[in-house]
Amino acid sequence: MSPPPPAAGNPYRAEHAAAKKAVALAARLCQKVQQDLLKLDVQTKADRTPVTVADYGSQVLVSLVLKMELPSETFSMVAEEDSEDLRKDGAEEILEHITKLVNETVMDDGSYSITLSKEDVLVALDGGRSEGGPSGRHWILDPIDGTKGFIRGDQYAIALALLDKGKVVLGAMACPNLPFKSIGNHNGGSSGDQVGALFSATIGCGATVETLEGSQRQKISVCSINNPVDASFFEPYEIRHSMRDCTSSIAKKLGIQAPPVRIDSQAKYAAIARGDGAIYWRFPHNRSRLTVWDHASGSIIVTEAGGLVKDASGNDLDFSKGRHLGHEGGIIATNKYLMPLVVEAAQEAMKQEGILG
Ligand SMILES: Nc1ncnc2c1ncn2[C@@H]1O[C@H](COP(=O)(O)O)[C@@H](OP(=O)(O)O)[C@H]1O
Ligand SMILES: [Mg+2]
Ligand SMILES: [Mg+2]
Ligand SMILES: [Mg+2]
Question: Where would you find the membrane-spanning parts of this chain (predicted)?
Fold first, then answer.
């Protein structure tokens, strides 16, 4: 399969190429860490969620590549991690390790002759503190989405997007553990295929998947199932990340027969975008706020693959509000046939569960 020529008339061509390069390089660092699976390198953040040397290293590498590839552009990034915990007493060793990993990955790649100091690493991490918002351009990065999956040895994604005047215009997502062709039924695991996939999309130009090295590339599109009885659905692997009472009630209302496929991270959006399944939904407990980096990249990949991404009331997601997403009640990604049916079932289920008044 030879790669199709780059889309003509794509105003984000340079950014698209830089974003793909950034997530592919970050994926190499993550793969290395996951192979060693150094549980000792897992820290717990103030919000009690885990973070690893790979989350930090990935964020540093993505910032580095974007700055090197797009030197004339103003750099603003809304990213998940920052240097706060690494500046605390006792974090010297972990900072040293991150710096070493980043420098080794840059050296192995050979694109840049640059060596970062520990201070450079801290400064690069803090380059992700932008508030984003409705004006200007901002990169949005989740350096490892699905850290819990990453630690378990399961699915995770390096998810990058570009926001331009409040709208997501580009997404690039590396999924190092996702089969290149299609997933089987078991939590995103390999079905003997080549493993590793890089999904990307720019507004108006469609969505593609390629191997992490870029040797094979193809256009992707969402499935065309229009009867929910034939649909399968993805939801978070982690029980705390979505209300399963609510989602099983929605599945029942829709007459869905297939059991849920539970996988970590925005790999769920990617899998929906290429038609591995029909629906991805998540209904967070306590209507907790969602962050833009958990959805920006995945949502444009799905919409450019011909799908829709809405909140539980059927509204578009609003990425222009800063670090948190404007949405109501939950997130649904599916095709245009199923979306109205899923929104209707979600509204009913949420009323019954007492989540909506
Ligand atoms: N209690 C909770 N409820 C909802 N989402 C949560 C959560 N704890 C963590 N998350 C979010 O869920 C993301 C993972 O998505 P998924 O549940 O689809 O695998 C996490 O991203 P990180 O792993 O980047 O921190 C985190 O932002
Ligand atoms: Mg996290
Ligand atoms: Mg995340
Ligand atoms: Mg993350």
Answer: none
